Amino acid sequence: MSVRLDGNLTNDLSYRLYARAQYEAFSREKDGNFAVARMGARLTENWDGWRLSGIYENRYDFDGIYRDLAFTSHDVMGSVARDFRVGNATFSPLVLLTYRFSDLAEARRWRFDAVLGIEVKLDPRWSIVSTPLFEAYWFTDGLNTGRQDQLYSVDLGLKYNVANNVSLTTTVLYEARTSNVPLRRYRDVRIGPRLDFAF
After folding, report:
1. For residues 71-100, b (16+ Cβ closer than 10 Å) or e, as one string?
2. Which of 127, 149, 175, 192 is positioned for an S-S bond with 159, CB 3.0–4.6 A?
3. For residue 158, what is the enclosing H or E element?
4. Cα gap 79→5, rounded to integer Å
């Protein structure tokens, strides 16, 4: 769940203030339950069709569902993105680089994201959507010094625009993580709906 406030400082410079909360609960491995609360700000400069962004995010990670605070982080990010339209299809590539400062040494790390958003409109209400992505992590401190993870994800979904500011998307997602730490390797399949509101 997230709330955000968007606005413009100039014709080409926009801002966003946001707060987000999320959690994951598992049916069997209860020790894997976790929750995150974060607040952040973003400045975006539009330059010749490209979006250049600087982002700061204050993040709180919890063990369990908002039970015990595990650690606090400060993420500093920079991204480049653009939209390309080809017929009834929109391609939205994005690259993002992040460094995480944290009170927990093991959480400090660099992260690189490469994402390609794809939306193919079937008619004014229905679209086929996909967001393949690649993430790479380089941990810098504590017991995680030298750890390197890579995450590959691909999904396919059907999106229905209920109204101008409400959409329902059902997706099938496959995710695989590799790592030089064997316990961090996994494969995951997720199927489910997502309801988005924008006001």
Report:
1. bebebebebebeeeeeeeebebebebebeb
2. 127
3. strand 148-163
4. 19
Return the structure tokens found at 89. Answer: 């299809």
DSSP string, 90-153: EEEEEEEEEEEEESSGGG-EEEEEEEEEEEEESSSSEEEEE--EEEEEEE-SGGGTT-EEEEEE
Please write the tens of the pLDDT for every residue from 154-176: 999 999 999 888 999 999 999 99
- Return mean pLDDT, the chain: 94
Model confidence pTM above 0.85: yes
pLDDT at 68: 86
Rg over CA atoms, the chain: 18
DSSP, collapsed to helix, strand or coil, labels residue 80 as strand
Q: What CA–CA distance (Å, rounded) separates 126 from 145?
A: 46
